[in-house]
């Protein structure tokens, strides 16, 4: 059976992997492909930590992704996936009753209040993974090539056009922000992020959430860490905001005990990263609509959801096939 996928971001690529491994013939059509550094797609610009989120739905999807990347980090480090120690802080809750993944992740432990940075009400540590998109995206493309997945570089204007171009009836719509037009989904919105890659030997991932969104994420093979960040809904400015660079550095120093105090944002930044996450008001869309499986709107959690979404896409394709055969 032939399956077409619109979008070569992490959702489209992992969906292609799950489908190809299940025996489907898969073709991906996308304007950008792995190796491209265009700001028109989000996956190369991600942090990208595998960080389950306490307040986001789809716990089983996040759990499946966690298990996939955990195995991959141990099986093949050339994928750009590595195991790291994680520290999470929150100032919008006082206990860990919402931290559903404490039963999933290794070495989960609450931190004493004396170890918390200013403003934090709770903190905990565990092990998870980070992904270097510059290594992972080409790695998974090579894997898909070896499994016979075809790639077509093209910008499609509609799902019907993709079906006609690829000669496939079944389409997986993993178009990210493109779903605003392709699916006519007015809930889709771009969420601007700005981060910096700075020199560091640290292998810790540190995240502060609540009144501000601040983090340090190790980037394998780069000699540095990603520090951020911001989530600016509906902001399409592609240029680096100098004031944000200073503010990010200030906030990261607050949560890392001044680890980056010696960093000069005008001289020590290896790379500035500005990208646009595929957000969706009301949450992601993951469902079948006739011959189309929609999988988009994962915002900052694309990598965290990715392989779990891929397995759900496979399930929806199989359900559609079963439904058709019973007619």
From TrEMBL:
Domain of life: Eukaryota
GO cellular component: cytoplasm
Pfam families, sorted: DAO
The UniProt record lists the keyword Lyase: no
UniProt record, GO biological process: D-amino acid catabolic process
Keywords assigned: FAD, Flavoprotein, Oxidoreductase
Domain FAD dependent oxidoreductase positions: 3-312
Cofactor(s) listed in the protein's UniProt record: FAD
Alphabetized InterPro entries for the sequence: DAO (IPR023209), FAD-dep_OxRdtase (IPR006076)
UniProt keyword RNA-binding present: no
Family to which the UniProt record says this protein belongs: Belongs to the DAMOX/DASOX family.
Official protein name in the record: FAD dependent oxidoreductase domain-containing protein
Organism: Aspergillus thermomutatus (Neosartorya pseudofischeri)
């Amino acid at each position: 059976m032939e399956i077409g996928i619109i979008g070569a971001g992490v959702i489209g690529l992992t969906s292609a992997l799950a489908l190809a491994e299940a025996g489907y013939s898969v073709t991906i059509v996308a304007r950008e492909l792995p190796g491209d550094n265009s700001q028109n797609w989000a996956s190369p610009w991600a942090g990208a930590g595998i960080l389950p989120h306490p307040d986001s739905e789809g716990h089983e999807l996040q759990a499946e992704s966690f298990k996939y990347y955990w195995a991959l980090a141990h099986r093949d480090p050339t994928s750009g996936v590595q195991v790291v120690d994680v520290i999470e802080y929150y100032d919008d809750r006082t206990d860990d009753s919402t931290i559903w993944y404490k039963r999933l992740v290794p070495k989960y432990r609450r931190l004493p209040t004396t170890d918390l940075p200013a403003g934090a009400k709770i903190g905990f540590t565990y092990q998870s993974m980070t992904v270097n998109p510059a290594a992972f995206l080409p790695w998974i493309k090579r894997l898909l090539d070896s499994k016979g997945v075809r790639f077509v570089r093209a910008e499609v204007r509609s799902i019907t056009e993709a079906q006609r171009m690829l000669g496939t009836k079944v389409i997986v719509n993993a178009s990210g922000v493109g779903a605003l037009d392709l699916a006519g989904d007015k809930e889709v919105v771009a969420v601007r992020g700005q981060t910096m890659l700075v020199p560091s030997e640290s292998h810790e991932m540190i995240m502060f959430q609540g009144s501000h969104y601040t983090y340090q994420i190790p980037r394998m093979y780069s000699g540095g860490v990603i520090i951020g960040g911001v989530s600016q809904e509906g902001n399409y400015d592609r240029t680096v905001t100098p004031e944000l660079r200073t503010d990010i550095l200030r906030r990261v120093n607050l949560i890392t005990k001044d680890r980056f105090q010696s960093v000069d944002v005008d001289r020590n930044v290896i790379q500035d990263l500005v990208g646009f996450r595929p957000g969706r008001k009301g949450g992601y869309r993951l469902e079948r609509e006739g011959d189309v499986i929609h999988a988009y709107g994962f915002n900052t959690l694309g990598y965290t959801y990715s392989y779990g979404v891929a397995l759900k896409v496979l399930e929806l394709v199989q359900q559609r096939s079963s439904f058709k055969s019973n007619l």
